[in-house]
Design goal:
The protein is built from 8 helices and no strands. It has helices at about 5-15, 20-30, 30-45, 55-70, 75-85, 90-100, 105, 110-120. α1 (about 5-15) runs antiparallel to α2 (about 20-30), α1 (about 5-15) runs parallel beside α3 and α5 crosses α8 (about 110-120).
Length: about 140
């Protein structure tokens, strides 16, 4: 059963990301303090202020597209990274290239899997509850 502390940490993550993942739910139940620490690190790494950081948000999310593709990440992870990259100024072509970069270490099937995810996103079939920017918005 989830404690009030676990629920509070989930609410905090949802406020930053706009949603939570199953890993967050399980950590909230397992150990709210572990979730807090994980959430703080992930929030800073992904969303932290740009002042003094070598990469802007667009670049961070493009890197995440490539990494998530390379590790054959889950559907939601690829969607989430692509949407956030575009929301921060990337074009779909930049997203495609970031995913294609993963084909070198991970193989063409990893890139192909990401392409299937991108097609489903463009058809409106997405599991991440974030708006998918129009393809012509940032070309």
């Amino acid at each position: 059963m989830m404690t009030p502390e676990g629920k509070a940490e989930l609410d905090k993550i949802r406020a930053v990301r706009g949603y939570t993942l199953p890993v967050h739910d399980y950590l909230a139940e397992l150990d709210p303090e572990m979730l807090r620490r994980y959430g703080d690190l992930a929030s800073y790494t992904l969303f932290g202020e740009e002042d003094g950081r070598p990469m802007d948000l667009k670049t961070r999310f493009l890197v995440l597209v490539g990494v998530t593709t390379a590790v054959k990440g889950d559907n939601e992870g690829v969607q989430w990274a692509a949407i956030r990259a575009i929301q921060n100024g990337a074009t779909w072509k930049e997203v495609y290239e970031a995913a294609f970069m993963a084909a070198l270490p991970a193989g063409i099937p990893a890139f192909e899997a990401a392409c299937h995810i991108f097609n489903r996103m463009k058809d409106g079939d997405k599991t991440v509850d974030l708006d998918v920017p129009d393809e012509t918005a940032n070309t």
